[in-house]
Amino acid sequence: MAGYADPGFDTLALHAGAAPDPTTGARAVPIHLSTSFVFESSEHAQSLFNLERAGHVYSRISNPTNAVLEQRVAALEGGIGAITTASGQAALHLAIATLMGAGGHIVASSALYGGSHNLLHYTLSRFGIETTFVKPGDVDAWRVAVRPNTRLFFGETVGNPGLDVLDTPTIAQIAHEAGVPLLVDSTLTSPWLVQPLGQGADLVYHSATKFLSGHGTVIGGVVVDGGSFDWARAFDASGKFAELAAPYEGFHHMNFSEESTVGAFLLRARREGLRDFGACMSPHSAWLILQGIETLSLRMARHISNTEKVVQFLASQPFVSRVGHPLLESHPSHQLAQKLLPKGAGSVFSFDLKGNREQGKKFIETLKVFSHLANVGDCRSLVIHPASTTHFRMSDEALAAGGITQGTIRLSIGLEDADDLIDDLKRALKAAEKAGT
Amino acid sequence: MQLLVNGAPTYCYTGGKPFDAAKPTVVFIHGVLNDHSVWILQSRYLAHHGYNVLAVDLPGHCRSGGEAPETVEQAAAFIVALLDAAGIDKAALVGHSWGSLIALEAASRLDTRATHLVLVGTAYPMKVSPALLETSLVDPMKALTMINVFSRSTLAAPPSALGPGTWVYGASMALGRRVLASNTAVNVFHRGFKACDSYAGGEAAMAQVQCPVLFVLGDQDQMTSPKAAQTLVQAAKAAGVRTETVRIEVGHHQMTEAPEETLSALRQFLGKP
Fold this sequence. Notes:
The complex is a heterodimer of chains A (437) and B (273). Helices cover 40% and strands 13% of the residues of chain A. Chain B starts with a strand and ends with a helix. Chains A and B meet through helix 1, helix 3, strand 1 and helix 12 of A and helix 1, helix 6 and helix 11 of B.
């Protein structure tokens, strides 16, 4: 940047990918609600389709507003580029479908968002992709689970909802020894708390619905490529990843790794994944998420400070049997969080009441500031009972592996006054305790 | 495609079209800590519009074996050997930064075999500050960040190499790390910088050039400012060859910060004899 230093996180959150509109002078990013973009000539059209020239053709493949969001998230994550998708689940599916087909195998953390667990355990197995789940902290289990057909390691920066911290540097090393990349879901931490690519991960994705947008108004996802995994070398060594390192009949016989030494994944994901699966993001959604990202630093700082106060409060309550946040020394990931997540381990966490199912229900129904709904990362504080909602398709064994019991309650701490949040929880705890007498 | 040059396997990207020596050939030469992929838009376009393209990975860089060149002269000799190995009589040479000096020196040795010479982001002398030279040796990652900052002029590049959604700043960092890691025997970062810094044959080489010369310069280029290219511009004019200059309102990485303008300059220049 001529005249500038290496830009910092807050500057990138406001400026990466965007400049004043050269036509209108608009300072904010315009919403380009156009399905298609006019070609200058037939020759220009042909060149765009053949990747000889860069530009927008059709908004399922790319869009100027989405491209700003993609550059911005890539900048914040330390990546080389990104692809926005219709949802976080679409981002996960896009990443997996780009790297493997039937016969592929994934080694994944057992502490996953319920929707991700469903995709891997039930849905993808129907399409011939198998997953072995391992406890995220069991380093040997990751290594032992590798098969000849393994194509991917996958985990969450902090597991949902137990906040098991993924030892990204260690798991990445094991993945790389096995010749496969590590994909990390960083939804609950956002790039403000941690940049997994800098810790060794190769791909990272977000449900942008959560902290990136931050206001509970939009569904979206984004997958970022760190440009670190050498697909061509892996292909030469094992024959894996022909999708990225051998000519592809479905797109001009292009060998994506030859086209771009570091960007093969993004090339194929966009030119095949978005083209054929079509789970693209609306430009309007992209704009809303951009608005959210502009205040990501401010919001995350408040999320974290409020969380610290609420965690300390809950930990002091006799009616609470466990608070599952790495802030506390009692949490199994406390030390790892200090090392890998020094700014905080997020504002979504769970705790257990010393009560039965009915008392749990009373607790949730008494809350007034906290909203009972299925989302996290909103500016408003949220509450849910995972065993009966987000994780209800999981067996008791799978729930236990993810650190969830029938009495577990999950909170997403918002931006309200911390005193009001604590007061709300205090009243609900009293009501729940009374309901048991 | 793979060629054997000076006994070493050498990779050249042909722009998605088969090698065809019957077409006019364009050789793209990358700069320090880069490889062929920095040219993908320009090289792919030309390959699909009547040219035979060879975007080379220099020896000891990424997909090419062999000893990484220690001097501009060594690298230029390699380019000449590459053309011989490929059976190419005449070629246009396009180089960026360090690659521009290699292209210049090679053109001076090729006499009439060089049809066009394009110097993108060039300077002469191409002095590297002692601090940066030292940092490239002892702390390459820090030096990589430094040159990336110096090379970029915007946080909002247009749709670029890889297409929309590319964060070109991050892509340059990742490519630099990959190129550095591709050679475990030699620090190609420091070696490339030393070659730039020590090259003293620029004016003499330009005096030998017999083909038209195009300078593609970035107005905001902090690595090789347009002012620093003027010695070569004047030398080209003094040599009596057709000399053109295109200035673009970007930094040092013209190919990704202004891919369309860079391609347009190449198309127009290469289209003329």
